[in-house]
């Protein structure tokens, strides 16, 4: 029963928020309350999983592998918790940002539908069900993209929808082929049935189709163009939610599928992941360096950071996997925060085009400091969380003596610092081209609270990294040795 | 039977790709629909195809007779068709909205979100 709540709460609140959308105040605060409830359900789930090991439940009472299984190990439970944290942050932020019209058009309901899709994708143990949750997530994100009704977001949505649907079709065909080969859709069951059959052509084809689908979802090279085209067009609340969660669901699916179902020992799979990851890092950061629009720089950064996470998976040693998982958690918090700050700054300087902004440091020093924390963390400056994340990945690649990859990871870190300093210099340091009076307004409390909390969380993770690394280590052990996971799913047969 | 369906799926993919490359948004969406039907056919073929052998279990027995098709992929296709239909409707509405907002259905000219750099 405990597994159902993180899905039921957002689904029910999405329906309720849509019904009551005329009562603006009720809906706005209801949305925050539902996000808090989701966080509480996530924490409860994580506490249970830490105590008793992976938990599984069979929906509709059909025993695995016939029914649909919900299952949580430490990784998926922790992802649900962090989804809850982001949900609380963006819904509070939305109190100040989302206007009545956008709320009336269903913004709040769509946010919770998206959260339901994300949590469903983390908790399902059935690969076709994973496809369904991806669709829930996708259709909610389509809605969130266009709900503010601007020309720009219609344009962004065309590219987002057009490219994401192709990935979805690849996912569907991959699942179909996999079923044709094995006769099962349950991921734990698939793990056993594919033992020794990893090199079969049909299995490899399905692996490649899923790699393409999840890679496109996670914005890996070369299928990332939808992300920088669309992430700067919707409201900041929606963009922060997307940047924190959507690509990470892709990475999560890659980690889950390529450890549980497919083996990373197959050279084709490993090389694709490895070189895809390296190129993703490099291309993403070069794209960021070329941009002059605040949120577009951040969008390109997501791509390069995804490269680090996939690199950790592709290197396939326990140390690298640990790095990938730690990176996943750190990046969700940092990236959501950077988008939120971009929105607060836009409110004060009137634009996100860096050339025509400035003077924020002189006018709003607190916001400047709050920007520096996630920005430096993203670039990997100690002692913030990003340093440990990068350190774990680089240390793992040094251990493998993969010099070229180590060099690429370090160089990309430097370039990240370069493009972050570009935002800093243009928006914060230099005076505003229209004089110091052009910076108007104050940061509303509803925006300040989530920004401050996420920044504090970044610092806490950085300073007490040992504790979080230990937690990530426990998650890594379960990922690399899925016996307990499989037992939880299939052992519940009786 | 499988080979005919495979060829058909290939033809659909080719036609879909041709439409999607034309640069017109409406054709792009129609191409996507062809692709989604190709994906459905792939799943259909993966579940074995038999003629006039319904996948039913005789009364009192626990497994169906030999040589019948697997019914599950067909249920999967049904789900996929429903989802695909919803997405198709959304995409068409979006295309109309984008055409209405930008005055063009040519994807190359839709540059509001990513304006060309000057100079």
UniProtKB/TrEMBL annotation, chain A:
NADH:quinone oxidoreductase/Mrp antiporter transmembrane domain boundaries: 126-413
What is the documented function of this protein? NDH-1 shuttles electrons from NADH, via FMN and iron-sulfur (Fe-S) centers, to quinones in the respiratory chain. The immediate electron acceptor for the enzyme in this species is believed to be ubiquinone. Couples the redox reaction to proton translocation (for every two electrons transferred, four hydrogen ions are translocated across the cytoplasmic membrane), and thus conserves the redox energy in a proton gradient.
> Subcellular location, in the record's words?
Cell membrane; Membrane
Protein name (record)? Na+/H+ antiporter subunit D
InterPro entries membership: CPA3_Na-H_Antiporter_D (IPR050586), ND/Mrp_TM (IPR001750)
Primary residence: membrane
Q: How does it sit in the membrane?
A: Multi-pass membrane protein
Automatic annotation (TrEMBL), chain B:
Locate the transmembrane regions by residue number. 6-21, 28-47, 75-100
Q: Which domain of life is it from?
A: Bacteria
Q: Which UniProt keywords apply?
A: Cell membrane, Membrane, Transmembrane, Transmembrane helix
Gene Ontology annotations for the cellular component aspect, listed alphabetically = plasma membrane
Stretches assigned to coiled coil: none
Question: Where would you find this protein in the cell?
Answer: Cell membrane
**Has the keyword Chaperone been applied to this entry?**
no
Q: What is its main location?
A: membrane
Query: Topology in the membrane?
Result: Multi-pass membrane protein
What is stated as this protein's family in its record?
A: Belongs to the CPA3 antiporters (TC 2.A.63) subunit C family.
Q: Which PANTHER family does this one have?
A: ANTIPORTER SUBUNIT MNHC2-RELATED (PTHR34583)
Q: What is this protein called?
A: Na+/H+ antiporter subunit C
Instruction: List the source organism.
Output: Pontivivens ytuae
């Amino acid at each position: 029963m405990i597994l159902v709540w993180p899905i039921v709460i957002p689904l029910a609140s999405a329906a309720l928020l849509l019904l009551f959308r005329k009562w603006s105040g009720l809906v706005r605060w209801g949305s925050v309350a539902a996000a808090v409830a989701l966080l509480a359900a996530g924490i409860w789930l994580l506490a249970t999983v830490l105590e008793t090991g992976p938990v599984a439940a069979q929906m509709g009472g059909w025993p695995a592998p016939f029914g649909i299984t919900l299952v949580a190990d430490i990784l998926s439970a922790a992802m649900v918790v962090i989804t809850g944290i982001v949900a609380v942050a963006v819904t509070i932020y939305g109190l100040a940002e989302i206007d009545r019209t956008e709320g009336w058009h269903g913004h709040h309901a769509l946010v919770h539908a998206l959260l339901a899709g994300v949590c469903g994708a983390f908790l399902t143990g059935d690969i076709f069900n994973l496809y369904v949750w991806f669709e829930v997530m996708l259709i909610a994100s389509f809605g969130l993209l266009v709900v503010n009704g601007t020309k720009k977001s219609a344009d962004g949505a065309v590219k987002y929808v057009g490219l994401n649907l192709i990935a979805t079709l690849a996912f569907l065909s991959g699942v179909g082929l996999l079923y044709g080969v094995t006769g099962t859709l349950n991921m734990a069951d698939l793990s056993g049935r594919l033992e020794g059959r990893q090199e079969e052509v049909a299995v490899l084809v399905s692996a490649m189709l899923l790699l393409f689908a999840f890679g496109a979802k996670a914005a890996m090279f070369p299928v990332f163009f939808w992300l920088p085209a669309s992430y700067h067009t919707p409201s900041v609340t929606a963009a922060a939610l997307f940047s924190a969660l959507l690509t990470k669901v892709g990475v999560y699916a890659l980690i889950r599928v390529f450890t549980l179902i497919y083996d990373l020992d197959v050279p084709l799979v490993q090389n694709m992941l490895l070189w895809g990851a390296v190129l993703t890092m490099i291309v993403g950061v070069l794209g960021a360096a070329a941009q002059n629009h605040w949120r577009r720089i951040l969008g390109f950064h997501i791509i390069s950071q995804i490269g680090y996470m996939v690199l950790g998976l592709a290197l396939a040693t326990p140390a690298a996997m640990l790095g990938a998982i730690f990176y996943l958690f750190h990046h969700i918090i940092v990236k959501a925060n950077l988008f939120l700050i971009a929105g607060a700054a836009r409110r004060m300087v009137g634009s996100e085009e860096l050339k025509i902004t400035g003077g924020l440091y002189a006018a709003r020093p607190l916001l400047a400091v709050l920007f520096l924390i996630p920005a430096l963390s993203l670039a990997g400056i100690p002692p913030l969380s990003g340093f440990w994340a990068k350190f774990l990945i680089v240390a793992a690649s040094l251990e493998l003596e993969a010099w070229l990859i180590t060099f690429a990871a370090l160089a990309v870190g430097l370039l990240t610092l370069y493009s972050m300093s570009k935002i800093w210099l243009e928006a914060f340091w230099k005076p505003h081209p229209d004089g110091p009076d052009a910076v108007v307004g104050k940061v509303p409390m509803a925006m300040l609270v989530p920004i401050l909390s996420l920044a504090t969380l970044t610092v806490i993770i950085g300073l007490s990294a040992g504790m979080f690394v230990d937690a990530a280590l426990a998650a890594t052990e379960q990922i690399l040795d899925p016996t307990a996971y499989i037992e939880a799913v299939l052992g519940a047969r009786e | 039977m499988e080979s005919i369906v495979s060829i058909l799926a290939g033809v659909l993919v080719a036609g879909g790709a041709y439409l999607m490359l034309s640069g017109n948004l409406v054709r792009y969406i129609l191409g996507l629909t062809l692709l989604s039907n190709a994906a459905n056919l792939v799943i259909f073929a993966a579940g074995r195809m038999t003629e006039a052998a319904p996948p039913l279990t005789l009364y009192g027995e626990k497994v169906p007779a030999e040589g019948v098709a697997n019914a599950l992929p067909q249920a999967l296709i049904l789900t996929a068709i429903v989802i695909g239909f919803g997405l198709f409707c959304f995409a068409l509405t979006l295309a109309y909205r984008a055409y209405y907002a930008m005055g063009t259905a040519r994807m190359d000219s839709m540059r509001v979100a990513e304006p060309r750099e000057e100079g």
